[in-house]
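It is worth pausing here to work through a concrete case rather than discussing structure prediction in the abstract. The textbook approach is simple: state the sequence, then state the predicted structure, then interpret. We follow exactly that order.
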Amino acid sequence: MVQVIPTHIKDVWDEWNIRGIVILSLTIQTILIILAPLRKRTSNRFLALILWLSYLLADWSANFVIGLIAKNQGKDLEPDDPPQDKKLLALWAPFLLLHLGGPDTITAYSLEDNAIWHRHFLGLALQAVSGAYVVIQSLPNSLWVIILLLFISGTFKYLERTIALYLASSDKFRGSMLENPDSDSNETRRPRKEDDLMPTENYTQYGTQKRPLRLENPGNLTHLEILQFAFWFFNNFKSLVVNNIFSSEQRDESREFFKNLEDEEALRILEVELGFIYEGLYTKVSVLHTWIGALTRTIALGCLLSAFGIFHYRTKKRHEFHGADIVITYTLFLVGIALDLVSLLMILPSDWTFAFISRINEDEVDSGSWIDPALKWFLGLKKLHWKKQKCCGGVEHEVLNTPFLIQRWAGSMKMFNFITYSVKADIKRIHDVKGRKRRLVWKTILYPFIFITKIFKKLFKRIANWNDDLHQYIKDVIGQWSEENPLAHYVFIIVEFWFMIPHCFTFLGNYITNLLGINDLVDEISMIRSVHSEPLTKELWGFIFDQLKSRLKRRPRHERRKTKAGRKGWDSGNIELYMADPERLMRYIADVDFDRSLMLWHIATELCYQEEAPTMTNCDKDREFSKVLSDYMMYLLIMQPKLMSEVAGIGKIRFRDTLAEAEKFYKRWHIENLRDVQRASSKILSVGIEIHPRDVKGNQSKSVLFEARALAKQLNKIKKQSVDGDEENMWSVVSKVWMELLFHAACNCDAAARMEQLSRGGELLIFVWLALAHLGLGGQLSSSANEEN
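Step two, the predicted structure:
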């Protein structure tokens, strides 16, 4: 009989399968506990892949080993079987229960994991039964006390994870709001026992009173006050996570507070609040900061340390067990204890811990807790760091440059530009925080590989051209020969079959991608090269927050001549254009689908931006804001379909049709290989179209390239025009349109995808959404509150 697997390989597997996968499980736990906290700081795809694989393999490896141990415990050893220490293997089973409990830094990889907490609870029961079966099979066992202690520790760790998943589920979030009827006041309501399980209820107890929202000195909030206010808002507005509404009283309280904040203070409060939301959804922090969590962790760690002490001092290991098994057991003990201590060290200096142990001042006489100075100093290390950076013709800006290990989010914005992608041009950054020298070094290192790739591409293209020319030549020869010889027809069929082989491979590749439904994935991979990051600037955030606060103010109608977008379009009527003839731009806003309007304004913004090089004299802030927001919103539309699913419409179809029209246009003008954005923009603007493209093509065509060109022409007509100071310049108009597009997307982004982004470095869009909610400008109000608004 033929052996598929060689005997020596099978023998090695039989001897080391349990040992190897036990070490693998421990290694995975180490990877998760160290790397999981980094995912809220970066959207690095390689890190996400490692964490995804580790998260999936963690449960699989632990379950698989428990099954192998149970199988080995239930059979008698044959003379030729490898040596198995059944008593020691029974000791490893509860270790795997510890591993199934998972590290404190990650309980869920995605929100869907929280929704299946029932499955984890069932898994706890099944694994407990499996562990008990393994122990019973090993009896009599001199290690039963150690096994019992480890079994208790593993059960509590698994229970922590299950409770954390339950508390982070959307049903629990919604249920916590239903538990508080409107008739109960905060003063008379008594906390229930189950409230202690989740420290994110609709109120927070500090002593006996709820923290009053007072802002005595805007602009002078300490780092500790920032943390405390963020924690207060997190507790009282956590229902926003599941798109629940809140009352007009809550809105007025939050609005009054946020409208008096300075720009940077608002940003700091929002980032800390979103950090609390991330920890509540994806980690065990919400459990460990309750009395139940503290009790279970104390018992689990105490049992683990006690088991190690008994094993080390009271067990005769050398005479009873195999040497390799003893080494593995010590490794499991020592690394397990070290990982628990590392988790403890990660939790103690966290924002959540500081918010719990700091006492909020109730009046001006109270000086606060004795530990407050130390907390303020430590939190000062995690403050926002800004770096001055020259850009846009030499103008200096302050960009967010917080060190990576103390970041609460990525602090950057992803950019995608349509024209840059369509002409395959190199990316030009507005703010290069990492430094041009560093990028030059990387380009120097990678240049040989890029050069070789280009040579192969040109070679394959030339071979393809030669193949087509040869094909045509042979067809002509066979055509002349067929007049004299009837066998030429069969030769022609063979030749055609030979030359159709490359096309068959192309057809087969397209068929497979269509069959698997991965066309979008292939397109996304090809577009990644045109995506880059820009750091958030203090000026841009100030502009966004000022625009948000300005929407709270009602301007008298007689002050300005203005036109609002119609109610039938994506816009809610908030755009106000102070121009002599605003109607010529409103046709691109009112009664236009959101995705169509976004692409129109994106291409038009880029065409106008490329018309002149930035200098110290023409470097308008509105011009830079428009460019950054335009590329950022385009990135969201194309590269974040889940986040923009509520407003994206047929954005990807429009993108493909517009891209096809652009590539056709470049070939017509022979500029497809120039890789020059400015040249391509000038060519598009140079096309003369007397009739508006929308009037000709209607809504049947999905391409918006030349409609965007018409919009750019309209924008150029109002460039730098002013009548008695009553008109806005072009870039002021464009920046306001982009702000409205940003606000609309923030108000209507998908709730689940919004929370998923917190585990991928965060997005500026989420900050805007939360700021809108706190200012009472979003759609999170009750009907009565909306009527008052």
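Step three, interpretation. The longest helix spans residues 436-481. Residues 596 and 651 are 7 Å apart (CA to CA).
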